[in-house]
Structure formats: C-alpha cells, structure tokens
Design goal:
The chain has 3 domains: 1-41, Orthogonal Bundle (Ribosomal Protein S4 Delta 41, Chain A, domain 1), CATH 1.10.1050; 59-99 and 197-209, Ribosomal Protein S4 Delta 41, Chain A, domain 1; 100-187, Roll (Structural Genomics Hypothetical 15.5 Kd Protein In mrcA-pckA Intergenic Region, Chain A), CATH 3.10.290.10. Helix 3 (53-68) packs across helix 9 (200-207) and helix 4 (72-84) packs across helix 5. Strand 1 (126-128) and strand 2 form a beta hairpin. The longest helix is centred in the first third of the chain and has 16 residues, at 53-68. By secondary structure, the chain is of the alpha+beta class. The chain starts with 8 loop residues before the first helix and ends with a helix. The radius of gyration is 18 Å and the shape is elongated. It is 40% helix and 8% strand.
C-alpha cells in the first residue's frame, strides 16, 4: 500500500500551519512550524509569490489530504462519493474523512496522532462492533462501537496514550466510555464539529472544473 514516508514536519511547513502529525511534538517548542515558519527547501525563505485562484484551491486540497493522511486517488474517490450523497458536497466530503476509522481512533484519544492511529489500526489493536478491523480507511456508521482489544489494554503503549489523553474531550458525535476503553458513534459529524480551518468550497471548485 502506498504511503508517505518522508519527514511529516515538512508537510506542516509547506502548508504554513500545524497539521498535528507528530503528537506531543506539535504542542512543544520543538515544533518546526514555530521554529521555521517558512516552506521547506532551498527557496523556502525566498520571495513568496501571490497564489493564483488555482493555487489557492490546490493548497486547500493538499492541506485537507495531509491533515487526514489520504493519498490523491483516495481523496478523489471520497469527493466522488460526496457528490453522490444528498446535501452540501463540501460538508459531505469532510464528513466522510472524519468517519475514517483511524480518525475516529484519534478523536477518541486512543492515539497521539492520526499517523499513529493509522499504524495502530493496521496492527489490529481495535475492533468495530466486536470484530477486528485493520483497515484505517474503514468508514464507521452511526451506532458502531469502536473498542481497544482486551489483549491490547495492558500494553505499556496504550497505558501511556490513555493517561496522556485523559483530559481530551472527544467531539459530540462520539461517546467515549473510558472504563471500557471504547467509543460509540452517536451521530454523523456536522460541519461545526470540525475545528480545523479548511475552506472546503475551494476543494469543490477545484474538482468541479
């Protein structure tokens, strides 16, 4: 399976804002976005040109892709899926991305970042409705119960993660049971539930050309 393997902090610097791809490091003084607030590469500190309309649309699409850890072909498929659903296409697209299993695991506080959540899902640490699911792109539905496998709860890794994220509050469309280490999808996410600054209408304009 294709995936991005280079330094993820370069992605944040390229977009000019934190994409929260490195867990605790993103909140510390070591974050490269805070230390070097210019794009990576030898021309990063050079004169910046004003982006065209197409450039703005492309950057917004890239930012969304990288925030959720999705490659281009899969992102385009999500857009086609969003177009077929009733409602606003841009909101539908963000809703689909939010319902990815790796994102839900991260939102529940069972991983420090989305890349880490993706890896943990691939390693088979989580179940959906009692059945092991190791596909990060699996789309959860209302009523689904996402739980950490009982055999994984005693691992030191998860003890540290759960303790660190104890104060984190999941979004209102997810109900977290900390004692059972599981969460339930109580509703589909609404636009107001997505706090990351994404102008989805620019993505729709880009793909609608």
């Amino acid at each position: 399976m294709a995936r991005y393997t280079d330094a993820v902090c370069r992605l944040c610097r390229r977009e000019g804002q934190k994409l929260f791809l490195k867990g605790d490091r993103c909140y510390s003084s070591k974050c490269p976005v805070d230390r070097r607030s210019y794009p990576p590469g030898q021309h990063g500190q050079g004169r910046r040109r004003q982006l065209s309309e197409y450039g703005l649309q492309t950057r917004e699409k890239q930012k969304a892709r990288r925030y959720y850890g999705v490659l281009e072909s899969q992102f385009r498929n999500y857009f086609k899926m969003a177009v077929r659903r009733p409602g606003v296409t841009g909101t539908n697209l963000l809703q689909i991305l939010e319902c990815r299993l790796d994102n839900v695991v991260y939102r529940l506080g069972m991983a420090m970042s989305r890349p880490e959540a993706r890896q943990l899902v691939r390693h088979g640490h989580f179940t959906v409705n009692g059945r092991k699911v190791n596909i990060p792109s699996y789309l959860v539905k209302v009523g689904d119960v996402i739980a950490l496998k009982s055999s994984s709860r005693n691992l030191e890794k998860f003890k540290i993660v759960l303790e660190t994220n104890e104060s984190r509050t999941p979004p209102k469309w997810l109900d977290l049971n900390r004692e059972a280490v599981q969460g339930t999808v109580t509703a589909l996410p609404e636009r107001d539930d997505i706090d990351f600054p994404i102008e989805e209408h620019l993505i729709v304009e880009l793909y609608s050309k």
